[in-house]
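fyi for ur records
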Amino acid sequence: MIEKIGIIGDVHSEHRRLQQALGWLEQQAVDAVICTGDIADGRGCIEECWRALASAQVHTVAGNHDRWLLTDQQRHVRNAHLRARVSEQGQVFLESLPKVIRLNTAGGELRLCHGVAEDDMAKVWPGTETTEIRRSDALDAWLAESGSPRFVINGHMHFRTLIDFERCFLINAGTLKGERAGITLLDMRARQVAGFNLLDDGRVCATQHYSLDERSDRRIWNNTAAFDGRWRPTSMHRLAQ
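which gave:
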């Protein structure tokens, strides 16, 4: 049974950070590693990235950058990869990535996607005084199911955070790119979600951690239709005190 899960966000060809993350997660004795995709388009080596994910048997979904690479779209983005320069095996790997993966865990069903469900460009955000609300009919449909998922893991926004729903935890996995590079541990045994920053000197530093049981200090939503723009983000970037 899957009880401890390592969560890797959008890769963007950060092969060194990916290797750092996979090595550290192996030391944590996780039962599974999952990834929100966007292997393509970044400053590093896409070949090393897909090979590392395949070798470690990481559950990986396709991101919008992977779709763009394979369809030769949006190649003006910074550090874009060209399909013609990706190995045949690499192209096959990217083409094989599903949009949604469902896993049975000790805490209930987990659904992994890049944006929301089949839409790799969708975002979910309750809204704050300075940011707009991003609702999702697709996520609300999942939440309304009789057998709704207990965990939804997505990426795309490059901001590691936790959004609490009555029967579900939405965890945005963030990214390995830039100054917010990091990973997340979802631990059913410890009953918590914990964040970790990846530093360029090779260190992995703990950030915030949140209980799956004690949620009195966090907003809990019924669905995204209830978002009201008065949310204090539950960030996983801040260093632990």
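The chain has five helices and twelve strands. thats all i got for now
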